[in-house]
Amino acid sequence: MPADIVQADFARLFRQDMPLLDVRSPVEFSKGAFPASHNIPLLSDAGREQVGKAYRKLGGGAALALGHRLVSGETRRALIRQWREFAEQNPEALLYCFRGGQRSRIAQRWLAESGIAMPLVTGGYKALRGFLLKVLDEAAGGDFLVIAGKTGSGKTSLLRELPHALDIEGAAGHRGSAFGSLTTPQPTQIDFENELAVRLLKLDHAFPPGLIVEDESRAVGSLAIPPVLFSAMKQAPVALLEVEFESRVETILQDYVLANLAAWERHSPGRGESLLALSLLASLGKISRRLGGEGYQSAGKLMRQAFAAEGGERPGLHRQWIRLLLERYYDPMYEYQLSRKLPRVRFRGSRAEVLQFCRERTRPEDYAGGISSSSPRA
Asked: Quick one: 229 and 319 in the same domain?
Protein backbone atom coordinates (compact mmCIF):
# COMPACT_ATOMS: atom_id res chain seq x y z
CA MET A 1 0.00 0.00 0.00
CA PRO A 2 1.25 3.59 -0.66
CA ALA A 3 2.34 5.66 2.33
CA ASP A 4 -0.39 7.59 4.12
CA ILE A 5 -0.51 11.38 3.87
CA VAL A 6 0.12 12.83 7.32
CA GLN A 7 -0.52 16.29 8.79
CA ALA A 8 2.93 17.54 7.80
CA ASP A 9 1.77 17.20 4.17
CA PHE A 10 -1.59 18.95 4.59
CA ALA A 11 -0.42 22.46 3.64
CA ARG A 12 1.11 21.18 0.40
CA LEU A 13 -2.02 19.12 -0.28
CA PHE A 14 -4.24 22.22 -0.17
CA ARG A 15 -1.82 24.63 -1.85
CA GLN A 16 -1.47 22.31 -4.82
CA ASP A 17 -5.20 21.46 -5.05
CA MET A 18 -4.39 17.76 -4.90
CA PRO A 19 -7.53 15.81 -5.92
CA LEU A 20 -9.35 14.22 -3.01
CA LEU A 21 -11.59 11.17 -3.26
CA ASP A 22 -14.17 11.48 -0.48
CA VAL A 23 -15.92 8.17 0.25
CA ARG A 24 -18.20 9.52 2.99
CA SER A 25 -21.95 9.39 2.46
CA PRO A 26 -23.63 12.13 0.35
CA VAL A 27 -25.18 13.82 3.39
CA GLU A 28 -21.80 14.04 5.12
CA PHE A 29 -20.26 15.53 2.01
CA SER A 30 -23.07 18.07 1.60
CA LYS A 31 -22.51 19.40 5.12
CA GLY A 32 -18.83 20.09 4.59
CA ALA A 33 -16.06 19.27 2.14
CA PHE A 34 -12.92 20.76 0.57
CA PRO A 35 -12.38 22.72 -2.67
CA ALA A 36 -10.63 19.87 -4.52
CA SER A 37 -12.75 17.02 -3.14
CA HIS A 38 -15.02 14.71 -5.15
CA ASN A 39 -17.63 12.49 -3.53
CA ILE A 40 -18.02 8.85 -4.63
CA PRO A 41 -19.47 7.31 -1.47
CA LEU A 42 -18.86 3.78 -0.28
CA LEU A 43 -22.32 3.73 1.32
CA SER A 44 -25.51 5.60 0.50
CA ASP A 45 -27.10 7.73 3.21
CA ALA A 46 -29.59 4.93 3.94
CA GLY A 47 -26.82 2.32 3.98
CA ARG A 48 -24.70 4.36 6.37
CA GLU A 49 -27.70 4.69 8.69
CA GLN A 50 -28.28 0.93 8.65
CA VAL A 51 -24.63 0.20 9.36
CA GLY A 52 -24.62 2.73 12.19
CA LYS A 53 -27.64 1.08 13.82
CA ALA A 54 -26.02 -2.34 13.49
CA TYR A 55 -22.84 -1.03 15.11
CA ARG A 56 -24.72 0.42 18.08
CA LYS A 57 -26.84 -2.68 18.64
CA LEU A 58 -24.59 -5.56 17.60
CA GLY A 59 -21.02 -4.22 17.50
CA GLY A 60 -18.33 -3.61 14.92
CA GLY A 61 -18.22 -7.10 13.42
CA ALA A 62 -21.92 -7.15 12.60
CA ALA A 63 -21.76 -3.62 11.19
CA LEU A 64 -18.82 -4.52 8.93
CA ALA A 65 -20.58 -7.67 7.68
CA LEU A 66 -23.71 -5.65 6.90
CA GLY A 67 -21.68 -3.07 5.01
CA HIS A 68 -20.14 -5.77 2.83
CA ARG A 69 -23.59 -7.21 2.09
CA LEU A 70 -24.92 -3.78 1.13
CA VAL A 71 -22.00 -3.14 -1.23
CA SER A 72 -21.52 -6.42 -3.07
CA GLY A 73 -21.95 -7.94 -6.49
CA GLU A 74 -22.70 -5.48 -9.28
CA THR A 75 -23.05 -2.60 -6.79
CA ARG A 76 -19.47 -3.13 -5.69
CA ARG A 77 -18.17 -3.54 -9.25
CA ALA A 78 -19.89 -0.36 -10.40
CA LEU A 79 -18.48 1.55 -7.43
CA ILE A 80 -14.94 0.36 -8.09
CA ARG A 81 -15.30 1.39 -11.74
CA GLN A 82 -16.22 4.92 -10.64
CA TRP A 83 -13.25 5.05 -8.27
CA ARG A 84 -10.92 3.74 -10.97
CA GLU A 85 -12.14 6.34 -13.48
CA PHE A 86 -11.52 9.08 -10.94
CA ALA A 87 -8.04 7.72 -10.13
CA GLU A 88 -7.10 7.44 -13.81
CA GLN A 89 -8.22 11.03 -14.42
CA ASN A 90 -6.49 12.22 -11.23
CA PRO A 91 -3.30 10.18 -10.73
CA GLU A 92 -2.26 12.35 -7.74
CA ALA A 93 -5.55 11.69 -5.93
CA LEU A 94 -5.74 10.96 -2.21
CA LEU A 95 -8.44 9.05 -0.37
CA TYR A 96 -10.29 9.80 2.85
CA CYS A 97 -13.43 9.08 4.86
CA PHE A 98 -14.48 10.79 8.09
CA ARG A 99 -11.69 9.63 10.41
CA GLY A 100 -9.50 7.61 8.05
CA GLY A 101 -10.98 4.37 9.34
CA GLN A 102 -12.85 1.41 7.88
CA ARG A 103 -14.45 3.08 4.88
CA SER A 104 -11.27 4.54 3.43
CA ARG A 105 -9.30 1.36 4.24
CA ILE A 106 -11.87 -0.77 2.42
CA ALA A 107 -11.86 1.61 -0.56
CA GLN A 108 -8.06 1.57 -0.67
CA ARG A 109 -7.96 -2.24 -0.57
CA TRP A 110 -10.58 -2.66 -3.30
CA LEU A 111 -8.75 -0.17 -5.49
CA ALA A 112 -5.45 -1.97 -4.89
CA GLU A 113 -7.07 -5.27 -5.90
CA SER A 114 -8.09 -3.60 -9.17
CA GLY A 115 -4.55 -2.33 -9.78
CA ILE A 116 -4.82 1.23 -8.40
CA ALA A 117 -2.61 2.39 -5.50
CA MET A 118 -4.08 5.41 -3.74
CA PRO A 119 -2.67 6.94 -0.51
CA LEU A 120 -4.93 7.62 2.46
CA VAL A 121 -5.17 10.88 4.38
CA THR A 122 -4.33 10.06 8.00
CA GLY A 123 -7.23 11.08 10.22
CA GLY A 124 -9.52 11.68 7.24
CA TYR A 125 -11.92 14.59 6.94
CA LYS A 126 -11.76 15.36 10.65
CA ALA A 127 -7.99 15.87 10.58
CA LEU A 128 -8.10 17.99 7.42
CA ARG A 129 -10.88 20.16 8.83
CA GLY A 130 -8.99 20.61 12.11
CA PHE A 131 -5.88 21.65 10.20
CA LEU A 132 -7.79 24.33 8.26
CA LEU A 133 -9.37 25.70 11.42
CA LYS A 134 -5.87 26.05 12.83
CA VAL A 135 -4.85 27.96 9.68
CA LEU A 136 -7.66 30.46 10.35
CA ASP A 137 -6.62 30.82 13.99
CA GLU A 138 -2.98 31.45 13.11
CA ALA A 139 -3.80 33.87 10.30
CA ALA A 140 -6.02 35.88 12.65
CA GLY A 141 -3.01 36.37 14.90
CA GLY A 142 -1.11 38.21 12.16
CA ASP A 143 -1.32 41.81 10.97
CA PHE A 144 -4.36 43.01 9.02
CA LEU A 145 -5.17 46.03 6.89
CA VAL A 146 -8.84 46.70 6.11
CA ILE A 147 -9.86 48.48 2.89
CA ALA A 148 -12.98 50.58 3.57
CA GLY A 149 -15.03 52.83 1.33
CA LYS A 150 -18.57 53.71 0.36
CA THR A 151 -20.73 51.32 -1.63
CA GLY A 152 -19.58 51.29 -5.25
CA SER A 153 -16.01 52.39 -4.49
CA GLY A 154 -14.61 49.29 -6.18
CA LYS A 155 -13.04 47.79 -3.06
CA THR A 156 -13.26 44.21 -4.35
CA SER A 157 -11.60 44.98 -7.69
CA LEU A 158 -8.87 46.92 -5.86
CA LEU A 159 -8.29 43.94 -3.59
CA ARG A 160 -7.66 41.72 -6.60
CA GLU A 161 -4.68 43.87 -7.60
CA LEU A 162 -2.94 43.46 -4.26
CA PRO A 163 -0.67 40.75 -2.90
CA HIS A 164 -1.65 39.20 0.43
CA ALA A 165 -5.31 40.07 -0.16
CA LEU A 166 -8.05 37.71 1.00
CA ASP A 167 -11.24 37.97 -1.08
CA ILE A 168 -13.85 37.06 1.54
CA GLU A 169 -16.79 37.82 -0.74
CA GLY A 170 -15.32 35.63 -3.47
CA ALA A 171 -15.05 32.72 -1.05
CA ALA A 172 -18.62 33.34 0.12
CA GLY A 173 -20.10 33.56 -3.38
CA HIS A 174 -21.81 36.83 -2.45
CA ARG A 175 -21.08 40.57 -2.77
CA GLY A 176 -21.92 41.27 0.85
CA SER A 177 -24.79 43.75 0.58
CA ALA A 178 -28.55 43.22 0.40
CA PHE A 179 -28.08 43.23 -3.40
CA GLY A 180 -25.10 40.87 -3.28
CA SER A 181 -26.71 37.58 -4.37
CA LEU A 182 -25.21 35.85 -7.41
CA THR A 183 -26.71 33.33 -9.82
CA THR A 184 -25.16 30.39 -7.97
CA PRO A 185 -26.06 29.40 -4.39
CA GLN A 186 -23.65 30.15 -1.58
CA PRO A 187 -21.58 27.33 -0.11
CA THR A 188 -22.28 25.87 3.31
CA GLN A 189 -20.73 27.62 6.30
CA ILE A 190 -18.15 24.86 6.66
CA ASP A 191 -17.23 24.96 2.98
CA PHE A 192 -16.87 28.75 3.23
CA GLU A 193 -14.50 28.45 6.18
CA ASN A 194 -12.51 25.73 4.41
CA GLU A 195 -12.24 27.88 1.27
CA LEU A 196 -11.00 30.87 3.28
CA ALA A 197 -8.32 28.75 4.92
CA VAL A 198 -7.18 27.26 1.61
CA ARG A 199 -6.97 30.75 0.09
CA LEU A 200 -4.81 31.85 3.01
CA LEU A 201 -2.49 28.92 2.42
CA LYS A 202 -2.16 29.83 -1.25
CA LEU A 203 -0.88 33.34 -0.57
CA ASP A 204 2.81 33.93 -1.17
CA HIS A 205 3.59 32.97 2.42
CA ALA A 206 1.52 30.87 4.78
CA PHE A 207 0.78 33.80 7.10
CA PRO A 208 1.91 36.95 5.33
CA PRO A 209 2.46 40.25 7.09
CA GLY A 210 -0.17 42.85 6.42
CA LEU A 211 -2.97 40.59 5.20
CA ILE A 212 -5.40 42.83 3.29
CA VAL A 213 -9.17 42.37 3.48
CA GLU A 214 -12.24 44.33 2.48
CA ASP A 215 -14.32 45.98 5.17
CA GLU A 216 -17.21 43.58 5.79
CA SER A 217 -20.05 43.13 8.22
CA ARG A 218 -20.09 39.83 10.08
CA ALA A 219 -22.69 38.38 7.67
CA VAL A 220 -21.85 37.87 4.01
CA GLY A 221 -25.20 36.86 2.61
CA SER A 222 -26.29 33.78 4.56
CA LEU A 223 -22.77 33.08 5.83
CA ALA A 224 -20.79 34.42 8.77
CA ILE A 225 -17.12 35.38 8.75
CA PRO A 226 -15.37 33.08 11.25
CA PRO A 227 -15.31 34.86 14.63
CA VAL A 228 -11.54 34.65 14.97
CA LEU A 229 -11.05 36.47 11.63
CA PHE A 230 -13.83 38.98 12.19
CA SER A 231 -12.44 39.92 15.59
CA ALA A 232 -9.04 40.65 14.02
CA MET A 233 -10.69 42.71 11.26
CA LYS A 234 -12.58 44.87 13.77
CA GLN A 235 -9.33 45.87 15.46
CA ALA A 236 -7.18 46.33 12.34
CA PRO A 237 -6.00 49.63 10.85
CA VAL A 238 -8.04 50.97 7.95
CA ALA A 239 -7.17 52.41 4.53
CA LEU A 240 -10.10 54.50 3.29
CA LEU A 241 -10.87 54.45 -0.43
CA GLU A 242 -12.50 57.70 -1.57
CA VAL A 243 -14.31 57.73 -4.93
CA GLU A 244 -16.57 60.37 -6.49
CA PHE A 245 -20.32 59.78 -6.31
CA GLU A 246 -20.97 59.40 -10.05
CA SER A 247 -18.06 57.00 -10.42
CA ARG A 248 -19.65 54.84 -7.73
CA VAL A 249 -22.97 54.94 -9.59
CA GLU A 250 -21.22 53.65 -12.73
CA THR A 251 -19.46 50.88 -10.79
CA ILE A 252 -22.76 49.71 -9.31
CA LEU A 253 -24.44 49.85 -12.72
CA GLN A 254 -21.67 47.68 -14.15
CA ASP A 255 -21.38 45.18 -11.28
CA TYR A 256 -24.94 44.82 -10.07
CA VAL A 257 -26.91 45.35 -13.29
CA LEU A 258 -24.88 44.72 -16.44
CA ALA A 259 -22.59 41.98 -15.11
CA ASN A 260 -25.45 40.29 -13.26
CA LEU A 261 -27.63 40.46 -16.38
CA ALA A 262 -24.94 38.65 -18.36
CA ALA A 263 -24.55 36.08 -15.57
CA TRP A 264 -28.28 35.41 -15.36
CA GLU A 265 -28.48 35.07 -19.14
CA ARG A 266 -25.69 32.48 -19.09
CA HIS A 267 -27.48 30.69 -16.25
CA SER A 268 -30.93 30.75 -17.91
CA PRO A 269 -30.73 31.76 -21.59
CA GLY A 270 -33.67 33.90 -22.64
CA ARG A 271 -34.73 34.58 -19.05
CA GLY A 272 -31.83 36.64 -17.75
CA GLU A 273 -33.64 39.97 -17.80
CA SER A 274 -36.72 38.77 -15.93
CA LEU A 275 -34.65 36.87 -13.38
CA LEU A 276 -32.44 39.90 -12.73
CA ALA A 277 -35.51 42.10 -12.28
CA LEU A 278 -36.98 39.64 -9.75
CA SER A 279 -33.66 39.44 -7.93
CA LEU A 280 -33.25 43.21 -7.68
CA LEU A 281 -36.82 43.77 -6.50
CA ALA A 282 -36.46 41.02 -3.89
CA SER A 283 -33.23 42.64 -2.67
CA LEU A 284 -34.97 46.00 -2.51
CA GLY A 285 -37.61 44.44 -0.29
CA LYS A 286 -34.93 43.48 2.23
CA ILE A 287 -34.16 47.14 2.95
CA SER A 288 -37.70 48.51 2.57
CA ARG A 289 -38.12 49.40 6.25
CA ARG A 290 -34.83 51.28 6.46
CA LEU A 291 -35.44 52.99 3.14
CA GLY A 292 -38.87 54.20 4.18
CA GLY A 293 -42.17 53.76 2.39
CA GLU A 294 -41.77 56.58 -0.10
CA GLY A 295 -38.16 55.70 -0.90
CA TYR A 296 -39.01 52.04 -1.34
CA GLN A 297 -41.90 52.82 -3.68
CA SER A 298 -39.81 55.28 -5.71
CA ALA A 299 -36.89 52.89 -6.12
CA GLY A 300 -39.17 50.01 -7.07
CA LYS A 301 -40.96 52.15 -9.65
CA LEU A 302 -37.66 53.21 -11.21
CA MET A 303 -36.44 49.61 -11.34
CA ARG A 304 -39.60 48.48 -13.11
CA GLN A 305 -39.44 51.39 -15.52
CA ALA A 306 -35.81 50.56 -16.33
CA PHE A 307 -36.64 46.98 -17.28
CA ALA A 308 -39.72 48.04 -19.24
CA ALA A 309 -37.93 50.80 -21.17
CA GLU A 310 -36.33 50.58 -24.59
CA GLY A 311 -32.71 49.47 -24.55
CA GLY A 312 -31.13 52.92 -24.90
CA GLU A 313 -33.19 54.39 -22.06
CA ARG A 314 -32.48 51.68 -19.54
CA PRO A 315 -29.03 52.72 -18.25
CA GLY A 316 -30.28 56.19 -17.31
CA LEU A 317 -33.25 54.77 -15.38
CA HIS A 318 -31.02 52.25 -13.61
CA ARG A 319 -28.72 55.10 -12.60
CA GLN A 320 -31.70 56.91 -11.07
CA TRP A 321 -32.60 54.13 -8.63
CA ILE A 322 -28.93 53.55 -7.86
CA ARG A 323 -28.50 57.23 -6.95
CA LEU A 324 -31.65 57.10 -4.81
CA LEU A 325 -30.40 54.09 -2.84
CA LEU A 326 -26.96 55.61 -2.33
CA GLU A 327 -28.33 58.95 -1.14
CA ARG A 328 -31.10 57.66 1.11
CA TYR A 329 -29.74 54.38 2.42
CA TYR A 330 -26.17 53.34 1.72
CA ASP A 331 -24.25 56.60 2.18
CA PRO A 332 -25.98 57.60 5.45
CA MET A 333 -25.40 54.11 6.83
CA TYR A 334 -21.76 54.23 5.75
CA GLU A 335 -21.17 57.63 7.36
CA TYR A 336 -22.46 56.26 10.66
CA GLN A 337 -20.28 53.18 10.44
CA LEU A 338 -17.23 55.22 9.41
CA SER A 339 -17.62 57.48 12.45
CA ARG A 340 -16.94 54.43 14.60
CA LYS A 341 -13.88 53.42 12.56
CA LEU A 342 -12.17 56.83 12.35
CA PRO A 343 -9.68 56.10 15.17
CA ARG A 344 -8.38 53.18 13.09
CA VAL A 345 -8.06 55.03 9.77
CA ARG A 346 -4.36 55.27 8.81
CA PHE A 347 -4.69 56.45 5.22
CA ARG A 348 -7.31 57.88 2.87
CA GLY A 349 -7.11 58.63 -0.80
CA SER A 350 -8.07 57.75 -4.36
CA ARG A 351 -7.86 54.27 -5.83
CA ALA A 352 -4.36 54.86 -7.19
CA GLU A 353 -3.20 56.34 -3.88
CA VAL A 354 -4.62 53.49 -1.80
CA LEU A 355 -3.05 50.95 -4.15
CA GLN A 356 0.35 52.61 -3.81
CA PHE A 357 -0.03 52.84 -0.05
CA CYS A 358 -0.87 49.14 0.26
CA ARG A 359 1.98 48.08 -1.99
CA GLU A 360 4.57 50.16 -0.14
CA ARG A 361 3.49 49.32 3.39
CA THR A 362 2.91 45.73 4.36
CA ARG A 363 2.89 45.95 8.15
CA PRO A 364 0.61 48.11 10.32
CA GLU A 365 3.54 49.45 12.36
CA ASP A 366 4.80 51.08 9.15
CA TYR A 367 1.85 53.47 9.21
CA ALA A 368 0.74 53.63 12.84
CA GLY A 369 1.25 57.34 13.30
CA GLY A 370 -2.19 58.64 12.30
CA ILE A 371 -4.15 59.52 9.19
CA SER A 372 -2.11 60.38 6.14
CA SER A 373 -2.99 61.21 2.56
CA SER A 374 -1.35 62.41 -0.60
CA SER A 375 -4.56 64.13 -1.71
CA PRO A 376 -6.39 67.28 -0.56
CA ARG A 377 -9.34 65.17 0.66
CA ALA A 378 -7.62 64.18 3.92
From this structure: yes
